[in-house]
Design goal:
about 900 residues; alpha+beta; 5-stranded mixed β-sheet; 27 helices; 31 strands; binds arginine; binds zinc ion; protease; aminopeptidase; metalloprotease
């Protein structure tokens, strides 16, 4: 570790830059071994800040020359920072020329300028631009960029950067050049270049305002047949943002480029989005329905950043959720709007909440818990978290819940009216929302609402209902609390919108009338909690209802309400809110799971689910009106991570045993129903990724899984045989992978042959092969066989630790995705984890730090896991030369 690299950055230390950079001219002589970069920029002093030296960020650069106004000048190095002290006084602009070199082919961190498949790519967010040239590499310094790329023409026929192509031509020695000019001011983290042998799918579009644009999706030559869905998703994104938010495309040309070596999912560089291939490439034979959905939402996400992120950017990185939470909210709304029907929308909402609860809730309960607007970081890359993204999106959603869709739109309009072209803060966003909605609950409660940005932890809403037959009243006592998180022992009450209804004995919503209201409302009502405790009295209630709280998951909280199984079953059968209908099923299963986990007895594993519960699930499965996608979600039991998050002491093996027992019982007792569902849904004809047919594939996949699991109990060969046949001849990847999954997860002897078959079919399709690796790494552990299998997979000729997607397909799938395989009594999983974190950290700290987070929940583990986990984390922490990324994760874990 170098001096100056280890400092903590604090939000309250923000100071405006001492200089502004107005324009940048970059010239690249691209060569994988040694790329030369000439940076000519126009700077001026920031008149609002006392005079001080210019300090330019750099990281692993080789400096050749610095020129001030065309003359050599004096400078010094402070660690990696280039310091210029003798600059002209006054506020006149001056020109600085910096000549550096970097080594793209040695850039294994994949930050800055790096190689992938022989082509050049960049990744600059958050602090990668300083690996390309010396700069004020901070988001509040915005400049216009003119970029010239020079490279060998045969090897790099395509040369791209942000903005518009203004010139191109030939150079001596078989080289050529292209010059790009981006007219929009932008921070350095949005800079991008691409050079290589690429081909593009192109589409010209005219938007409703009549402007014309060229859309391009660039990929490697063999991948053009996998770009149709990406292009369609991009077109939908452009049209949707204009229709829903009045935000047009502001560029003549919008480019997406795919690379197979990428730390993150994608990057919203102005006009030149760079994507992980995983979120671009899709064709029916190689991509699943889940992949199609993910492509659509990530393409939407990056496109929507063009306004929320690029036109209005972040003042500093503590404001990251300003753009990420808002943009995730926007991509979620986009996917819901495209899904169409209320049921399909609900399915999307449920899927988002499942992810939030199994990843963000645990994060908020662990050592890395941080507010949506963090207060400090050691390495900003560690804060591209599910809290910033997904919880941030829930916070934005609560604005919409509080002020309504129209009020939200007004707030967005005001936000852009005030801040277009600026680098701003979460406070600016909140203020625009409130000012555009004067007199609203939000405006009135804004300072308190903003606690969502400053307080970490998942609030708990505890509710208790009491029916008074004589008075015909139903009283709900609702209280809120929030557990302590690192650095925040005590929390103030949040503003929590609780959308609710009361479900009558006939299954219909009871009209709601609070005691101080003149008349009743039909259906749902949103109660806004602001106090530690609130009492709500509903009048004219003729019979005891079942409360349905937090409909649509109206706030990112844990709801603690003691409903009896019969009440949950009532909601599961009748709730008019599809989210809560699903939720009732989850809570029913969760209650059983927790009871059986805590009982500790082996007998608890025999028949964990009671008859009434099974009947209720059967009724959903056989329901004549419900959509297949919704049925599949209801019939899927809560995942092991979510269950673990509910427990004070976590025994991963016990959780796994109970979950397996529940699944086995669900498989056998509903066997005939599963067979019926499979017959109903297994043939969806020619592949399209629409919600109805993907819902059917999802239910057919679950059914086949259950049927293979049931077959394992009694040696039936029919269903495993069908699954094997499907692995061989399925017409699309979703059906094929589901069939393979059914065999591998049920542990059937055909699984091995099916895996071989799959490998032979897809050995030249990296993304499909990632699935093959991942499936084996997160398969259920039986007697500890997974870790040896994982070690074996790492020796496979197609495995590489250097490729982030491949590394994650084995290591994350195992350490994050397979609790029972990972948490072994012999501690071998933890030893393996420590070895791999250290191995990765030597060349790619970001990927290493993500893997390091697999141990977040160590302190709540039962013994012997806890002590062994701690020892493994300590071993990593003690390693000399650890990156800031990993050091921050393990240090927090140990405090
Ligand atoms: N802004 C990108 C996106 O969410 C992600 C950038 C990831 N950068 C990082 N250092 N992890 O669209
Ligand atoms: Zn983003």
């Amino acid at each position: 570790m170098r001096a100056g690299q280890s400092a903590v950055t604090r939000r309250l230390d923000y100071a405006p830059p001492a200089f502004w950079i107005d324009s940048v001219e970059l010239t690249f002589d691209l060569d994988p071994a040694k790329t030369r970069v000439l940076n000519r920029m126009r700077l001026r002093r920031n008149p609002d800040v006392p005079a001080q030296p210019l300090r330019l960020d750099g990281d692993e650069l080789n400096l050749s020359r610095v020129m001030l106004a065309g003359q050599g000048c004096s400078f010094r190095m402070d660690g990696e920072t280039l310091v210029l002290e003798n600059l002209p006084e006054g506020n006149a602009p001056f020109e600085l020329e910096i000549f550096t070199t970097c080594y793209p082919e040695k850039n294994s961190k994949l930050m800055g300028l790096f190689m992938s498949g022989g082509d050049f790519f960049t990744q600059c967010e958050a602090e990668g631009f300083r690996r390309i040239t010396y700069f004020l590499d901070r988001p509040d310094v915005m400049a216009t960029y003119t970029v010239t790329l020079r490279a060998d023409k045969a090897r790099y026929p395509v040369l791209l950067s942000n903005g518009n192509l203004t010139d191109e031509g030939e150079l001596p020695d078989g080289r050529h050049f292209a010059t790009w000019h981006d007219p929009h001011n932008k921070p350095s983290y949005l800079f991008a270049l691409v050079a290589g042998k690429l081909v593009a799918r192109e589409q010209r579009i005219a938007t409703r305002s009549g402007s014309e644009h060229l859309l391009q999706v660039y990929v490697r030559p063999g991948d053009l047949d996998k770009t149709e869905h990406a292009m369609n998703s991009l077109i939908h994104s452009v049209l949707w943002d204009e229709a829903r938010f009045g935000l047009p495309l502001d560029l003549e040309r919008f480019m997406i480029v795919a690379t197979s070596d990428f730390n993150a999912g994608a990057m919203e560089n102005k006009g030149l989005n760079i994507f992980n291939t995983k979120y671009v490439l899709a064709k029916p034979s190689t991509a699943t329905d889940g992949d199609y959905d993910a492509v659509e939402s990530v393409i939407g996400h990056e496109y929507f950043h063009n306004w929320t992120g690029n036109r209005v950017t972040c003042r500093d990185w503590f404001q990251l959720s300003l753009k990420e939470g808002l943009t995730v909210f926007r991509d979620q709304e986009f996917s819901m709007d495209l899904a169409g029907t209320p049921s399909a929308r609900a399915v999307k909402r449920i899927e988002n909440v499942i992810d939030l609860r199994s990843a963000q809730f645990p994060e908020d309960a662990g050592p890395m818990a941080h507010p949506v607007r963090p207060d400090e970081y050691l390495e900003i890359s560690n804060f591209y978290t599910t809290t910033i993204y997904e919880k941030g999106a829930e916070v934005v959603r609560m604005y919409q819940t509080l002020i309504g869709r129209e009020g939200f739109r007004k707030g967005i309009d005001l936000y852009f009216q005030r801040h277009d072209g600026q680098a701003v803060t979460c406070d600016d966003f909140a203020q625009a929302m409130a000012d555009a909605n004067e007199g609203s609950d939000l405006a009135r409660l804004l300072p308190q609402f903003k606690r969502w940005y400053s307080q970490a932890g998942t609030p708990v809403v505890k509710a208790q209902g009491r029916y008074d037959a004589a008075a015909r009243t139903y009283t709900l006592t609702v209280s809120q609390s929030c557990p302590a998180t690192p650095g925040q022992p005590r929390k103030e009450p949040f503003v929590i919108p609780v959308q609710m209804g009361l479900v009558g004995a006939d299954g219909r919503d009871v009209p709601l009338q609070l005691d101080h209201w003149q008349q009743a409302v039909q259906g749902s009502h949103t109660v806004v909690l602001t106090e530690g405790e609130t009492t709500l009295t509903f009048i004219h209630v003729d019979a005891e209802p079942v409360p349905s709280l937090l409909r649509g998951f109206s706030a990112p909280v844990e709801l603690d309400i003691d409903l009896a199984p019969a009440q949950l079953m009532h909601l599961l059968a009748h709730d008019s809110d599809p989210f809560n209908r699903w939720e009732a099923g989850q809570q029913l299963a969760l209650q059983t799971a927790i009871e059986k986990i805590e009982s500790g007895a082996d007998t608890a594993l025999a028949q964990p689910l009671n008859d009434a519960h099974l009947q209720a699930l059967r009724a959903v499965l056989r329901h004549p009106q419900l959509d297949a996608a919704f049925k599949a979600l209801v019939l899927t039991l809560p995942d092991e991570d979510y269950i673990a998050d509910q427990l004070d002491t976590v025994d991963p093996q016990r959780i796994h045993a109970v979950c397996e027992a529940m699944a086995r019982q669900l498989a056998t007792e509903l066997r005939a129903d599963w067979a019926w569902a499979y017959e109903q849904c297994h043939d969806t004809g020619a592949y399209t990724p629409d919600p109805v047919s993907s819902g059917k594939r999802s239910l057919a996949g679950l059914a086949l899984h259950m049927l293979c699991l049931a077959a394992q109990q009694d040696g039936d060969a029919v269903w495993p045989g069908k699954a094997y046949q499907r692995v061989k001849d399925a017409g699309n990847m979703t059906d094929r992978l589901n069939a393979l999954h059914a065999l591998v997860y049920s542990g059937h002897e055909l699984a091995g042959r099916a895996l071989e078959r799959f490998y032979t079919l897809f050995k030249d399709e990296p993304l499909a092969l990632d699935k093959w690796f991942a499936l084996q790494s997160h398969a259920p552990d039986r007697g500890g066989h997974i870790l040896p299998a994982v070690r074996q997979l790492m020796k496979h000729p197609d495995f590489s630790l250097r490729n982030p997607n491949r590394a994650r397909s084995v290591l994350s799938a195992f350490c994050h995705g397979n609790p029972a395989g990972f948490h072994r009594r012999d501690a071998a999983g933890y030893v393996f984890w420590a070895d791999q974190v250290l191995a990765l950290d030597a060349f790619n700290p970001q990927v290493a730090a993500r893997l390091a987070r697999a141990m977040d929940a160590w302190a709540r583990l039962a013994e012997p896991y806890r002590a062994a986990a701690r020892a493994a984390i300590e071993r990593v922490a003690a390693h000399a030369g650890l990156s800031n990324d990993v050091r921050e994760v393990v240090t927090r874990a140990l405090t």
